[in-house]
């Protein structure tokens, strides 16, 4: 592989500079993506390996990031498990028949992933061929807790209060569902690795909604199973947004990398996570809307705070759709140029 900076950083090896990619780097801030969006629906773009491949490569070619991340969505797993998932303009994900009781569990299953998610594996094979060793390919899945949030609440939410009520009122049903999601996810991620994914990221976008003990009960014990099943195959990155109170427990799962958001300082994250794990993050995505000179200044300050070792530069959450392409480029270029010599 020509550029394996991210893989070496995940293994804890010293690198000539800090690698960089951006969560949600393939998306609506890119005019090239918007063009395809006009012609094909969201899940068409996910299910067609040629389209998924073209979209995955866009940020590699246009922005110059050090990794490609598979173009897909965390919600393809609930779909494969038997739930209908729509993506509604301006509203976001909609699951018209969410899970609300033990009886509803009869409508979901642990599927044969080759049958239901084979299109993802085909996309990965195609992407690997087209990348031709330029940069590594990151595969991904949603963490079980975050998927439960959507499967129970039925749509996006700031609080996911219905999903939490479900866990607190019907814990046995919640755990049965979380285990089904976990089993599906392990098979799915093993399939991604077999198809060619070089590393994997688990997105627990709503991990920060749970207190520390509930995070252990409803999220971390399932993340632990997934990491254990995959970590001997490829390095695994766990991104549990807002759950930094559990960084030390997440490091103990054997994850190679931990994603952090901008609400925790790099020095504090390092103290909590220890020295045996790579930290990834943590630029505030909204700061990409600031003037370029300020982006450059703050990106350098971020590099300094993390230090030279075991850091993958990234945003602390997904890139926003209204970010100018030049600003995204300025962020990536600052990391690449500045981290060569100056940290
Ligand atoms: C919670 C979550 C979802 N999806 C994802 C998460 C976890 C990460 C996070 O917290 O941001 C993960 C995801 N979604 C997408 C990717 C592709 C790879 C990448 O470039 O990072 C990844 C890794 C594409 C997408 N997934 C979605 C889009 C926008 C679709 C469009 O073109 O309209 C993209 C590019 C749709 C989606 N999918 C989801 C939501 C809430 C939405 C609607 C909101 C939004 O539009 O951002 C669920």
From TrEMBL:
Highest rank taxon of the organism: Bacteria
Positions that bind substrate: 24-28, 43, 73, 150, 205, 317
Pathway of action: Porphyrin-containing compound metabolism; protoporphyrin-IX biosynthesis; coproporphyrinogen-III from 5-aminolevulinate: step 4/4
Gene Ontology MF, one: uroporphyrinogen decarboxylase activity
EC number in record: 4.1.1.37
Uroporphyrinogen decarboxylase (URO-D) domain residues: 19-28
InterPro entries referenced in this protein's UniProt entry, alphabetically: UROD/MetE-like_sf, Uroporphyrinogen_deCO2ase_HemE, Uroporphyrinogen_deCOase
Annotated site, Transition state stabilizer, chain positions: 73
GO (cellular component) term, any one: cytosol
One matching Pfam family: URO-D
Keyword annotations from UniProtKB, A to Z: Cytoplasm, Decarboxylase, Lyase, Porphyrin biosynthesis
Subunit and interaction comment: Homodimer.
Name used for this protein in its record: Uroporphyrinogen decarboxylase
Organism annotation: Niabella soli DSM 19437
Lineage: Bacteria, Pseudomonadati, Bacteroidota, Chitinophagia, Chitinophagales
């Amino acid at each position: 592989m020509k550029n394996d900076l991210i893989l070496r950083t995940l293994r804890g090896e010293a690198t000539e500079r800090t690698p960089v990619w951006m969560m949600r780097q393939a998306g609506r801030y890119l005019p090239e993506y918007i063009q395809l969006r006009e012609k094909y629906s969201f899940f068409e773009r996910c299910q067609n390996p040629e389209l998924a491949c073209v979209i995955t490569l866009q940020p590699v070619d246009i922005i110059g990031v050090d990794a490609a991340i598979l173009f897909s969505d965390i919600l393809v797993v609930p779909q494969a498990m038997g739930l209908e998932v729509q993506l509604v303009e301006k509203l976001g994900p909609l699951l018209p028949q969410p899970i609300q009781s033990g009886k509803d569990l009869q409508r979901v299953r642990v599927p044969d992933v080759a049958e239901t998610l084979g299109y993802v594996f085909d996309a990965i094979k195609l992407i690997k061929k087209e990348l031709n060793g330029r940069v590594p390919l990151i595969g991904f899945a949603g963490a079980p807790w975050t998927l439960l949030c959507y499967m129970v609440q039925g749509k996006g939410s700031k609080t996911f209060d219905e999903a939490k009520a479900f866990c607190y009122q019907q814990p046995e049903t919640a755990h049965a569902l979380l285990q089904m999601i976990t089993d599906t996810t392990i098979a799915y991620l093993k399939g991604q690795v077999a198809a060619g994914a070089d590393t994997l990221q688990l997105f627990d976008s709503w991990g920060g909604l749970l207190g520390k003990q509930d995070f252990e009960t409803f999220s971390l014990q399932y993340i632990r199973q997934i990491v254990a099943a995959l970590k001997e195959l490829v390095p695994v990155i766990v991104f549990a947004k807002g759950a930094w109170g559990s960084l030390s427990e997440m490091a103990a799962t054997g994850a190679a990398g931990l994603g952090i958001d901008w609400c925790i300082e790099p020095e504090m994250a390092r103290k909590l996570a220890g020295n045996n794990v790579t930290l990834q993050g943590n630029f505030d995505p909204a700061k990409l809307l600031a003037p370029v000179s300020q982006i450059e200044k703050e990106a350098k300050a971020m590099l300094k705070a993390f230090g030279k070792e075991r850091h993958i530069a990234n945003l602390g959450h997904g890139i926003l759709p209204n970010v100018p392409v030049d600003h995204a480029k300025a962020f990536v270029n600052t990391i690449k140029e500045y981290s060569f010599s100056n940290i």
